[in-house]
Write a structure and sequence with these properties.
Strand order of the largest sheet: 6-8-9-11-10
Helix content: 55-70%
Distance between the termini: 109 Å
Order of helices and strands: HHHHEEHEEHHEHEEHEEHEE
Strand content: 15-25%
Shape: rod-shaped
Radius of gyration: 50 Å
Bound molecules: adenosine-5'-diphosphate
Number of strands: 11
Number of helices: 10
Length: 477
């Protein structure tokens, strides 16, 4: 590539000689053209060679003038035109070299940014960044140490493997410059970059290393941010998936609940419709019609209980709570009345009651305590389908001072230990083959708990599958 400018220098020299142009001829300025051409195409070296040759070829015309007239004006002019191509070639060539190096550096910095902006993890991309930094700086070795404070520090070398032993010994013979720079983009230090060159590390190289260190730090910060963002997006995606799944579950539970409610309402309604129709269309004897009316009455009561339970639960779930009308309560009388009713209705079961002689006085909502007792008794009967003993106890709580205990115990199917914490939650029903057909909405126990809480009390359960259960309502006396 330098052949072109050198050929032009020779052509100008030949032309000048042929035309008999002397040292002061304006044609001599044409020598600047090949010097500039060489500097632009080959940098400082090319510019210097072409400029030097142009000066050299002018010398035979200038030196005789100096010899003849000393340092006269034409002689000085000749000397200046002898030096200018060399000076121009060298200066422009240097500028070209510098801008080329700067361009290559900028390109490498962009590559570093692009490399760290990739999708792969930071650790996997660090070696590539070290190699790019090494190329951009024109040094022999680069080592990057990152400590992001979230695990083991990351280290990357360029070249990746240490130099062979023979070249190491050669290295020791040569002075080696090492520069260690912090990687800090203003958010705190994230690591260091060490650059090494066999021989000198000039001022310009140090400046360039500082710029590269700053860009690496910026790119690392960006990569960290991008990684955090990806992590955050993933978390968000997981949360949305979980929320969607929960919504689906709620939707399923709602449909299931509506099916159960419709079934629960339909059973007493069918009985009501059937018996009332019989009474309307047929001539039924008096005693039979009384029996039918009894059924109508008990089924309408059942319907009423379901609706009341649902309304109460809606009140509790909306945070409105239950309103109580407290009054001094005769617990003995309440227990006896309920045991009597249940004993009449469930001949398969043996009802027992045990009411302590000295019962602490209780000030509570009669209707609420009655509902709690009825719910527990209903469950005791419902979940011991083969019959058995049902015990109702009322006594001062032995393990909680100042509390009255109202307990219902059965020897029915019992509840598995893992299901015990959930039985007081609304709509929860524990599957058991013996009681699969038992009616219910999973509301009874949650209402018992809500009523006990409304009185400042609590409810507890002990149960063994296949042995039976004991529910205790504890109310402040
Ligand atoms: P429901 O009886 O309408 O299903 P509950 O809230 O009263 O609703 O009871 C919730 C669940 O707890 C029942 O479905 C049943 O599985 C279990 N359970 C309640 N009482 C007993 C009991 N005495 N023995 C065995 N399991 C019971």
């Amino acid at each position: 590539m330098i052949a072109g400018p050198l050929g032009l220098v020779a052509l100008i020299a030949v032309s000048m000689a042929a035309a008999g142009a002397d040292a002061g001829s304006p044609v001599r300025h044409l020598y600047l053209v090949p010097a500039l051409w060489a500097a632009l195409s080959r940098g400082a070296m090319g510019g210097a060679v072409a400029g030097f040759l142009a000066g050299l070829l002018q010398a035979p015309a200038i030196f005789p003038v100096i010899e003849e007239s000393g340092l006269s004006r034409p002689a000085l002019e000749g000397l200046v035109s002898l030096c200018i191509p060399l000076a121009l070639g060298l200066t422009v060539g240097r500028l070209v070299d510098q801008s080329r190096a700067r361009g290559a550096q900028l390109l490498a910095l962009v590559e570093i940014q692009l490399s760290l902006a990739g999708e792969t993890a930071l650790a996997a991309r660090l070696a590539e960044v070290a190699a790019l930094a090494r190329r951009a700086l024109g040094v022999d070795r680069v080592r990057l140490d990152l400590d992001l404070g979230n695990g083991a520090p990351l280290v990357a070398h360029a070249p990746a493997s240490p130099p062979p032993a023979e070249s190491q010994s050669r290295r020791h013979a040569m002075p080696c410059r090492r520069l260690v720079l912090p990687l800090d983009a203003g958010q705190g230090r994230v690591g260091t970059m060490a650059v090494e060159r066999d021989g000198d590390l000039g001022f310009a190289a140090r400046g360039a290393a500082e710029a590269v260190a700053l860009h690496v730090a910026l790119a690392v910060e960006n990569a960290r941010l991008a990684e955090r963002q990806r992590h955050f997006a993933q978390e968000l995606e997981d949360q949305i998936a979980q929320a969607t799944e929960r919504l689906r579950e709620i939707d399923r539970a709602k449909s299931e609940f509506l099916t159960v409610v419709s079934h629960e309402l339909r059973t007493p309604l069918t009985a009501l419709q059937g018996f009332s129709e019989l009474l309307l269309v047929r001539d039924v004897p008096l005693d039979q019609s009384r029996r039918y009316l009894g059924h109508v009455h008990s089924e309408s009561q059942r319907l009423g209980r379901i609706v009341t339970d649902l309304l109460d639960l809606t009140r509790i779930e909306s945070g409105r709570g239950l309103s109580l009308r407290r009054e001094p309560l005769d617990v003995r009388e309440l227990v006896e009345a309920n045991v009597e009713i249940f004993a009449c209705q469930h001949p398969l079961h043996r009802f027992e009651r045990c009411v302590a002689e000295a019962l602490p006085p209780l000030c509570a909502d009669r209707d609420a305590v009655d509902r709690m007792l009825k719910n527990l008794l209903t469950n005791a009967v419902k979940y011991s389908p083969r019959g058995g003993r049902v015990l109702v106890e009322a006594c001062p709580a032995t393990d909680r001072a100042g509390m009255l205990e109202l307990a219902v115990e059965d020897d029915g199917v019992g509840i598995p230990a893992e299901a015990l914490p959930r039985v007081f939650d609304p709509y929860v029903r524990i599957a058991h083959p013996d009681t699969a057909r038992a009616p219910g909405l999973g509301l009874g126990l949650s209402l018992v708990r809500a009523l006990a809480h409304a009185h400042g009390g609590l409810v507890e359960v002990e149960s063994l599958p296949g042995k039976g259960s004991r529910f205790r309502v504890l109310l402040p006396a």
